[in-house]
Design brief:
Layout: H1 2-12, H2 20-37, H3 40-43, H4 49-74, H5 78-131
Helix pairs in contact: 1-2, 1-5, 2-4, 4-5
């Protein structure tokens, strides 16, 4: 919703060149929401969905921060200032989201790395018993 509001503000402002970033972020967020709601993430196991969400949040935070600084400093109309302020708020929201998602990624990676040596140990034991 925040990306859509920023998109509308950029359309109404003099900084229309920045409108593509919030539009893409809105569409990506809508796609991921639709994917989770329709359980596409369970059907396509080959993709690690939290990693995609993490990368989207990191890039969104960086891009929103950059275009918000440019919109606030370069343009003097009210819609550009409003889009910049909403962009700073979106930067904070996306930063919190990628921090939460990063913690999920770390627990997943720890869980995956702890399972793989055990699997190797059981394979090694099988190969040792075959050589006897």
């Amino acid at each position: 919703v925040l990306s859509f509001i920023i998109f509308i503000c950029y359309i109404a402002s003099l900084a229309t060149s920045f409108m593509m970033a919030p539009l893409l972020e809105f569409l990506l967020a809508l796609f991921l929401f639709f994917a989770y709601a329709s359980k596409l993430n369970e059907k396509f196991k080959g993709l690690y969905w939290p990693l995609m969400d993490f990368l989207r949040c990191v890039t969104a935070a960086v891009i929103y921060f950059a275009i918000s600084i440019a919109a606030v400093s370069k343009y003097n109309d009210g819609a550009s200032k409003a889009a910049g302020v909403f962009g700073f708020i979106a930067t904070i929201v996306y930063a919190i989201d990628f921090y939460i998602t990063f913690n999920d990624l770390v627990t997943f990676l720890k869980q995956g790395s702890s399972e793989s040596p055990e699997g190797r140990k059981s394979e090694d034991e099988d190969s040792d018993s075959d050589s006897d």
